[in-house]
Design goal:
Elements: E1 11-14, E2 37-45, E3 49-56, E4 62-68, H1 76-91, E5 100-105, E6 111-116, E7 121-122, H2 133-152, E8 155-156, E9 165-167, E10 179-181, E11 188-189, E12 199-202, H3 209-212, H4 218-234, H5 244-253, H6 259-262, H7 268-277, H8 288-296
Antiparallel strand pairs: 1-12, 2-3, 3-4, 4-6, 5-6, 7-9, 8-11, 9-10
């Protein structure tokens, strides 16, 4: 069972502002330089944007087009964060990260980003279903390897969760399917001035203690992946709550129930790693590269 407050939409607000809400709005036509991409239809709703299937009329390849909701066009902060996905694509090229190709604005001023079309289903579809330990380790190792590449480039994803991982079909050399991390909409750059100002962004059931305080680092993603792995093992996130405040207090103060207490028979080695990843103190967590190595054994 999923936590009652778990949502596919991330929590986004600067300290002292308020929650940015994103009602659905139809996209407008694209600017001429962007006209090579043909929209085929909306396939998903994100935190501040909509995802559309599209086709690159130059190459004939299918692509995914992410459009910012028009009501956010006047928010310099939201637009900057949204277009920050382009910088992530320029900084990092890893097979476990969705490839960002292009970006621009609609005539109405809404930001748009073009990326690879990733075949498969979100990892959220696997939550609650019996999943072999080998599959959990394989998914985790692929995700950790991809995020470790982000960290090497001084980028923190800040919103790791099952909905932001697409798993492709099983095949030779990929018995668990290929995992691809998507959605860098709230990613932070550790080497850019002002990027570490206190700002809360993320999805509550997966947010690290320091993230609730508006502080982030590479260990923030380690914690989120720990929550994700915990959910795959037990069928639920580590902490539940009737409100966002309850969840915040749980992540900040409540001890984690060991996965084997919720899922008897769970792999004890995997449990040991997950509990280390969910340490309240960032410095006590392993690095993402160490997580990838451990899961790959």
């Amino acid at each position: 069972m999923r936590a009652s407050t778990a949502s596919s939409s991330p929590l986004r607000f600067a300290c002292g502002s308020g929650l940015l809400r994103c009602p659905t709005s139809p996209p407008g036509p694209l600017r001429p330089w962007f006209a090579r991409y043909h929209l085929l239809g909306q396939v998903a709703q994100g935190g501040v944007g909509t995802i559309h299937a599209g086709r690159d009329t130059t190459t004939g390849k299918r692509v995914a087009i992410k459009l910012l909701q028009p009501e956010h066009a006047d928010s310099a902060e939201v637009v900057s964060r949204f277009l920050g996905e382009l910088e992530v694509g320029l900084r990092v090229d890893h097979p476990g990260l969705v490839k960002i190709h292009d970006g621009g604005f609609t005539p109405e001023g809404d930001a748009a980003i073009v990326m690879d079309w990733v075949e498969g289903a979100s990892l959220a579809h696997a939550v609650g279903a019996p999943l072999p330990t080998d599959d959990i380790r394989a998914h985790g190792a692929q995700i950790a390897s991809a995020i470790a590449a982000l960290h090497e480039a001084q980028v923190v994803h800040c919103d790791l969760k099952p909905e932001n991982v697409i798993v492709g079909p099983r095949g030779p050399g990929r018995p668990a399917g290929k995992a691809t991390v998507v959605d860098f909409g709230v990613a932070r750059f550790l080497d850019e001035p002002g990027e570490l100002e206190p700002t809360i962004a993320g999805t509550p059931p997966y947010m690290a203690p320091e993230q609730w305080r508006g502080r982030i680092g590479t260990a923030t993603d380690v914690y989120a992946l720990g929550c994700l792995l915990y959910e795959l093992v037990t069928g639920d996130v580590p902490f539940d709550g009737s409100s966002v405040v309850d969840l915040m207090c749980a992540h900040l103060e409540r001890p984690v129930v060991p996965p084997t207490a919720r899922a008897p028979g769970a792999d004890v080695g995997l449990e040991r790693l997950i509990l280390a990843m969910l340490a309240k103190t960032p410095a006590a967590r392993p690095s993402m590269a160490a997580v990838a190595a451990t899961l790959s054994w």
